Amino acid sequence: MRVWFNRTFSSVYAAIGLIREADTAGRFHIIYSNANPHVAAARAAHEFHAEPTGIKGDDYIEWCLAFCREHRVDVFIPGRESTALAGQHARFAAQGTRVLSAASQSVLELMHDKAEFYATVDLPAAPPAVCRVFEDLAQFDAAHADLRAQFDTLCVKPSRSVFGLGFSILDEQRSSAALLLDGAAYRIGLADFRRGLAELGTHRTMLLMEYLDGHEYSVDCVGDHGRLVAAVARKKPMTAGQGQLIDMRSDIVDAVTKLAASYGFNGVFNVQFREGAGALRLLEINPRMSGGIGMACVAGPNLPYIALCGFVDGYDDVVVAPVRDGIRVAELANATELA
Prior knowledge:
The protein is α/β, with parallel strands linked by helices. It has helices at residues 12-22, 41-44, 57-71, 82-85, 89-93, 105-111, 114-120, 137-148, 176-182, 190-200, 250-263, 293-298, 303-313; strands at residues 2-5, 29-34, 47-50, 75-77, 98-99, 131-134, 154-158, 168-171, 187-189, 206-210, 216-224, 227-235, 244-246, 267-276, 279-286, 328-329. The longest helix has 15 residues, at 57-71.
């Protein structure tokens, strides 16, 4: 069975390796494509192909359809343009390719906008952080006056972003220059930030939020059209160099079970939580594999393989290994020569 991963996040390298490791019968032939011929995942797949540069949207979808026909793809697991491709299942099915999308196109669009997503969440045990939307200085000042009366420390981040890009804690005492010279990461001076907003006028949608200062949890999951099949929760340390702890808290498992059902998640997805003031808060849902998928699978369940087998055969006969709760995991870097 020919399985194609198109250009996506670097976690695909671990995913392909995990699938091949578990596929002792050699049932799956893994194809990977990327515009960069030196990408690590090119070495992990059975077959690698170059993607064209400079095309996107409808043109890229047409290229994907042609690629599936030419290479006889049975299962397509999209990364690039995954949201648009989620609305094209019927076109791929008509030519013999099944597309594994993490959710419907409308849900994926929702996940990419945190402001809109937070407004839909019904999760009393782990609600999103308290936040306000702003798109200019006046809206920011009004939001700041409201939230600063409730919380000692606030932070900002874009409504649409990945990898935490654009996140900063607002520092009311030091300037951005002082923070830079002190090596204070992810912090920006409040006065400097306000001055920048005034210069910009209107800007893309941002969130002003309560700052959550507790432990962060990353939960890698497999869903079956809204039913949670497997989950592995990793507790991230407050100090670097200590690895991550597998911590299967019952409230976290309950929360991801409810989120999977609410949004109909399918295949591999990831949920992020963080503690603040002793309470658990939802940060975001990533409708894709996380960068730490390999660490999660050390704890037992081979999540990419479970998702692929379940999608192809149904989940009735898929074996999910028990989670080794309480173990500590980490990733080790190994140097290698690229072809």
